[in-house]
Specification:
binds NADP nicotinamide-adenine-dinucleotide phosphate, oxidoreductase, STEAP_metalloreductase, 8 helices, Rossmann fold, NADP oxidoreductase, P5C_Rdtase_cat_N, oxidoreductase activity
């Protein structure tokens, strides 16, 4: 696949690099040509402008701050946009903007899929995404079946498992989960300890 990356920061480099390693063609289009060229050179991608990234291919990774995401993307009718942004208020670990992903889709016309926002950038840089023998699950929320299909493939291609999280309106729950987990994590809690497997007798399995 061909993936345009908007942004040239940590997430752009970590995910862009993984996709290059998985055999995809990646174009890094941050606002700084120098930083875009440097990131592209480090991961084996090509560099371009933000407009080049939007037009490049099968999907666009939006890896900029949530507050500027719609403005940076601009009108993108029908484009498959992977939205990894989190509108988390620093220090309060609450959401800055409700329904951010839905609003992004409404403002830009893109087929937005919220994905890759749950794990810290450090996770995406790890050599392996298999933990305790299980590949990392990546929750996805979106409304377009075709766009979800593209993003599921992007997830699988880096050795992860897509986890269907429902329509785009549920993306704010995914962001809220992220905000909550970051707050626990910063407070020193063991975030992984709070989701044990359901007992079989629960009636839900
Ligand atoms: N860091 C994490 O652990 C993590 C995990 C999951 C999701 N996310 C989300 O992923 C997104 C990117 O995070 P990151 O960690 O990659 O951040 P980052 O390293 O700070 O990179 C941010 C990128 O956005 C660009 N940018 C900032 N303001 C901009 C503006 N007004 N117009 C155009 N471009 C602008 C920056 O450009 P310059 O370099 O020119 O400033 C940079 O390329 C955020 O929405 C974040 O919430 C982050």
């Amino acid at each position: 696949m061909r993936i345009g990356v908007l942004g040239s920061g940590g997430m752009a480099e970590a995910l862009g690099g993984r996709w290059v390693a998985a055999g995809h063609e990646v174009l890094v289009g941050g606002r700084s040509p120098e930083r875009s060229r440097a990131v592209a050179a480090r991961v084996g991608a090509v560099a371009g402008s933000p407009a080049d990234a939007v037009a490049f291919g099968d999907a666009v990774l939006l890896a900029v701050p949530a507050a500027v995401a719609a403005e940076v993307l601009g009108p993108a009718p029908g484009r498959v946009v992977v939205d990894c942004t989190n509108s988390v208020v620093p220090g309060r670990f609450a959401l800055d903007e409700p329904r951010a992903a839905v609003r992004l889709a409404e403002r830009t016309g893109a087929h937005v899929v919220k994905a890759f926002n749950l794990c810290h950038v450090g996770v995406w840089r790890l050599p392996s995404l298999v933990f305790e023998g299980r590949p990392l699950g990546v929750p996805l929320c979106g409304d377009s079946a075709a766009a979800l299909g593209v993003v599921r493939e992007l997830v699988r291609s880096i050795g992860c498992v897509p986890v269907d999280g429902g329509p785009l309106e549920r993306a704010e729950l995914l962001e809220a989960t992220t905000a909550f987990a970051i707050g626990l994590w910063v407070g020193g809690a063991d975030v992984r300890s709070i989701f044990p497997p359901l007992p079989e007798a629960s009636g839900l399995m």
